[in-house]
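Structure (tokenized):
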């Protein structure tokens, strides 16, 4: 029997934030083939033989994607997906399905999986799906970071500045805002300038985008 590593030892030297392809499959032959494929294109990867093993070791949100067999003994692919959703883990999932598993795969995608691929599949097809999933994960993380940055800027606004911010993004002129808040137009202009500075906005359009993000 050809030996294989349950988890690629090559990963121990990589930075924890490096995108990783997590592979969960109970079939030893599939795991061995997956490891060889990931090695051949220098993709960081970790391989697990069960959903329970993956959950035990995946204790924090990490960048990458998950390639997951939909049918496994014990914790199946759909159950693992449900548990990740409960934990708030947004790792993009590519399901590996058998011929009769398409309805299950459709259900998985309705719950947020990014793709599914049917056995048998070509190596290049899987690699293409993995690269798309990694790109999706990067986009999600950038969006989450941007949201956190905008939220942090909002927290620095005073109550009055927040009131001005909420009215400015509706397109109302300073004179109307001043009337609604019962202050002078000059006061609104000063608060508006401070809002622009604290929110690091270059234009009204920037403020509107930040308001939508918040």
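Design, position by position:
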């Amino acid at each position: 029997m050809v030996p294989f590593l349950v988890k690629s030892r090559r990963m121990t030297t990589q930075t924890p934030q490096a995108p990783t392809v997590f592979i969960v499959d109970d079939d030893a032959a599939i795991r061995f083939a997956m490891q060889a494929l990931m090695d051949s294109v220098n993709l960081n990867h970790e391989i697990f033989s069960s959903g329970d093993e993956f959950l035990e070791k995946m204790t924090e949100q990490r960048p990458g994607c998950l390639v997951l067999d939909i049918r496994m003994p014990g914790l199946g692919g759909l159950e693992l997906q449900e548990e990740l959703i409960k934990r708030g883990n947004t790792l993009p999932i590519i399901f590996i399905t058998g011929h009769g598993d398409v309805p299950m795969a459709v259900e998985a995608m309705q719950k947020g999986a990014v793709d599914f691929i049917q056995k048998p599949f070509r190596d290049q097809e899987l690699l293409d799906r993995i690269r798309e999933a990694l790109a999706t994960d990067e986009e999600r993380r950038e969006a989450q970071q941007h949201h956190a940055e905008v939220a942090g800027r909002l927290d620095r606004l005073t109550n009055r500045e927040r009131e001005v911010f909420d009215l400015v993004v509706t397109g109302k002129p300073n004179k109307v805002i001043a009337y609604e808040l019962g202050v002078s137009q000059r006061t609104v202009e000063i608060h508006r300038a401070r809002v622009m500075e604290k929110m690091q906005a270059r234009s009204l359009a920037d403020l509107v985008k930040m308001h939508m993000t918040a």
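Reviewer-requested clarification: Residues 156-213 form a domain with the Arc Repressor Mutant, subunit A fold (CATH 1.10.10.10). Confidence is low (pLDDT under 50) at residues 1-15.
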